[in-house]
Amino acid sequence: MSDFSLRDVQILPATASNYSEVMAISNGINDGLDYLPYKYHEWLADSNRSMFIAKFKGKVVAFLSTLLVDGGITALLQSLRVAPIMRGHGIAGVIRRYALDNLRFKNPDVTKIRATRKENPPAALLKRNSVVHSKAVVSMLLPNNQMEDSIKALRLRVKRDYVGALPVVLSPLEVLDLFENPCTLEHLFPKGLLIWDFLSLAAHKSNLKLLLGSGLLWIYSKSTHSDTPSSSGTQCSHPAPTHINPPPQHPPLPHISPELLSLSSAPIPVPLAKGTHCLNIDLFGTNPRFVQGHILHHLAKQIPVLPPGGSIICVVVAEETLRDAVTDFLQGITPFHIWKHILVLEGSLQNPRHPHIKAKM
């Protein structure tokens, strides 16, 4: 674009009136599983979140959102997108730097930024951020006309194969108790991170208000002494840190944890096709014995809230050591091929140098 200059880019707070233009530049994002159309207006009402647009010649050409977490010391970068015709011109860097400058000005306690990305992020991104964790992703398609038979087949597998403690739904008080136990936190979150719905949060009580206010379904299983595999890796190696930041040196991932925790929220509509919804199921821990019961329990609880005729893309996110257990359980159900891993990138909030841009706050 011969007449383009970063000097002519405006950065503005996003508003409800920008919705259509932001959606127009988002076509094809996340393989049709884009959550922003559903979340946009909800995000506008969140006091811990900021949303920005970039404009060129009066048109929206980029979008980015930031969210304060971890007690206000970490900012998550979410939903960066640039209009296809404007990619490669540096607009992503401009809106990112401006958003971070805004964070620093309004929230001087923020010291870290974190983002969740698909595998193979750009080299430039890896130069300024470290990969602090990765998790496996397994996805399947449950069309409405196959859903009943698929769930029936999964129930039969659970009835035939499931051993150990039955999964239970946790109340908010029980969730709080879970986060009071240092050993449990270490088993469930070996890198000190809770990755829910592609948000990467410190596994700390400071984030419970966000989590408990999101209508999540919490499911938990714990082995008894009689069915816990003998492994020194399941022992709690040290007390959980009293500060929010995970320590720089993490203990090795245990072979099998005695517990498994899983989260899901109600399926949300996505642009892939009319009537299609996305259901994210996030697993925490490394115990393969509980995988079947947890996935089935979430499906059984969440499918009834679908509108008539709805279909589901189910995205299961788990530690890499559980990939085979998840894949085996879902065998025979139509796979939905998206990315195989998600990465959590983390960097420090430093003073960036800004190009000359027009900005309004």
Automatic annotation (TrEMBL):
Residue ranges of domain N-acetyltransferase in the record: 9-145
Domain of life, source organism: Eukaryota
Biased segments, Low complexity type: 229-243
Entry GO MF terms: acyltransferase activity, transferring groups other than amino-acyl groups
Region span, Disordered: 229-251
Annotated PANTHER family: LOC100145250 PROTEIN, N-ACETYLTRANSFERASE 16,-LIKE
Protein name as it appears in the record: Histidine N-acetyltransferase
Gene name, Swiss-Prot/TrEMBL: LOC100490569
